[in-house]
Design goal:
single chain, 2 domains, alpha/beta, 8 strands, 5-stranded parallel β-sheet, Rossmann fold, 8 helices, Rubrerythrin, domain 2, 261 residues
Length: 261
């Protein structure tokens, strides 16, 4: 008998295959992974052009479709990338070391007990990041918020008189949700990256929802075939790539003035 774990709620199922639906949280079979002991995430020093981060609690649902479209376009353009679903990783809450003293928060992060340090290294060694999030109460997901909080150790470096290793990198944002919430959520995400010197690509975010009048069970199919969201996500990926190709990071790293609270 195999053990399967729901990456949303942690429910354990025993059987040759995962259940069609999680009896604890209603997640689909796509949310189950083999329940085996995982090693901490490691970074193998490879150079990455684009880092894809899915911040949804559901690795296999609507936000995943946005990531699939982005990934297929990166493949078509032969761009080096890595893709991660945050709900499959161990990213703990930020310890807020800076609240004790400024130099207590530095890179590498003091918390070396989870997967965040490897993500930090990939952030620093990539040229661009594309983040996808659903809208939870007119904001980003809690998982994504935890991940972004953990980037404080990078953002804090200039406060310690050190060079910021992310100034001039490029950002794209994909939102699963309606217009008003999408604009707010995208800007909330952007603020984090802006404080690390990132540049939002022109027309650098896309959003889409199926609408509250539709049954949630039909959302996934709608996302997969909707021509507008496919076109818009590919457009964001194109704009990230073309902005990245301007090599702003190389040109600006030594010239931008660090400004922060």
């Amino acid at each position: 008998m195999k053990e399967w774990k729901c990456v949303i709620c942690g429910y354990i199922h025993k059987g040759n295959n995962p259940p069609n639906e999680c009896p604890q949280c209603s997640g689909s079979s796509k949310e189950f992974v083999r329940n085996i002991k995982k090693q901490r995430l490691r970074y193998n020093k490879e150079k990455i052009d684009v880092l894809l981060i899915n911040g949804s609690s559901h690795r296999g649902h609507n936000t995943k479709v946005l990531m699939d479209i982005a990934e297929s376009e990166l493949k078509r353009r032969k761009i080096k990338y890595r893709r991660f679903n945050l709900n499959e990783l161990d990213v703990q809450h930020c310890w807020c070391c800076y609240s004790m003293r400024d130099n207590a928060c530095t890179y590498p992060c003091r918390n070396q007990l989870d997967d965040a340090p490897a993500l930090h290294e990939m952030i620093i060694n990539s040229k661009a990041v594309i983040v996808a999030s659903p809208i939870n109460w007119n904001n980003m997901s809690a998982r994504l918020k935890d991940f972004l909080d953990r980037l404080t150790c990078i953002q804090n470096l200039p406060l310690l008189g050190k060079e910021c290793p992310t100034a001039g990198k490029i950002l794209g944002i994909l939102i699963n949700g309606h217009e008003d919430g999408a604009l707010k959520t995208a800007m909330d995400i952007f603020v984090y990256f802006q404080q690390m010197g990132y540049i939002l690509a022109p027309y650098g975010f896309a959003y889409k929802t199926h609408g509250a009048e539709n049954n949630a069970g039909t959302d996934n199919k709608y996302f997969k075939v909707n021509k507008k969201i496919i076109k818009d996500v590919k457009g964001v990926v194109n704009n990230v790539i073309e902005t990245m190709n301007l090599k702003a990071e190389e040109k600006l790293r030594k010239k931008v003035a660090f400004v922060c609270e």
